[in-house]
Amino acid sequence: MDKVAVRTRMDESSLERLLGLDSSKIGFYAEVKQKIHELEAANQGLRSKSSELQAVFDSISDGVIVYDHSGIVQHRNHVCPHYFPQETLPGSSCRELFHPEQDSAAHDCPVERALAGERVEISISSLPVDGSARYFDVTATPIEGSKGEQNRALLFLRDVTEKRLQELHLMQTEKLSSIGVLAAGVAHEINNPLSSVAGYAEALLRRFKDERLLAGDPRFEDFPKYLQVIVRESYRCKGIIDCLLSFSRKSDGSVCNVNINEILQEVLELVRFKSQYDKIEIQTHLQGDLPDVLGDPTGLRQVCMNLLINAHQSISGPGLVEITTKMTKQSMVMFQIRDSGCGISKEAIDQIWDPFFTTKNVGQGNGLGLAVTYNILKRLGGDISVESQVGKGSKFTVRMPACQR
User: Could you count the other beta carbons within 10 Å of the beta carbon of residue 197?
Assistant: First the structure.
């Protein structure tokens, strides 16, 4: 008799018992393997997001720093080493950047204030080893901790040195514009009386020439000489006012052919009385056939005025200011202003072009003159250099490309 095959129906639990899966580790390993695959996928996603965030982090043109809850640098982007290579190293404290001389200065430190939950915006300046001052806008924002964690701080450093120099230049231009308004008022109020004085003096001179009795009277012997002095000095005052108006006229930014000798002579008229009062001798050695330069007349007047005023202020008591112009072999127009003043120390000479840096006493200067001078000359394609010795004076040399004749 043939055996009849009987198919029995098994449930899942019976099948697991038959295969021994209920007592073996095969099921556990399968579950672990599945979890590993899930973790690997999650890690891959995290690495991708991390790469994206790092790319964003490094693409920011400002310096970016993340500080932990203790004020220690955790991360920085590639810009920070260019600004503060040591102060922003991972593991460095915020104290090294913002308050190196004080162990604790939470009220001044933007990082400490951000860690306390405050958003802070401040400006700072730095003086690197090369002596070139830089200016930064700093924004510190708290990164709120989750699940009871303490805050961290996100810091942005933006270099605003160029912007600050432009603002200073604008301030100086606005100041000159104010001087121009004042000079216009002075010219209106003074020119009319001066014209009357000069006119009447000239009329009296003509009368002395026409009437022989007056000319022959010994009591009036000195009158023609005095009247000539009055006429001459009246017109000289009018010339000074015209120079002041020309100097303080607001620049429209346009450039044209400018003769440096003429600019220097205009400015000398404005400082000549100060030189006589301070007993400072001015010697000029101006090349007669000096070619023109392409520049802004108002800006070049400002350059010459700043250098001459600095030369005068560096001299205490009688002294000498020597002005020289000449054409160099490299087709450059050069003018030098040398003084017999106090000179500049080696430590300070690299900082004199920085805004707000000054070696003068309080009230004598704000440290903007040479910074603005440097900026004007660079804008016009020129350059300026200085040689100085303490106690022996200084010599500033300006070079500008000569116009082709």
Answer: 15
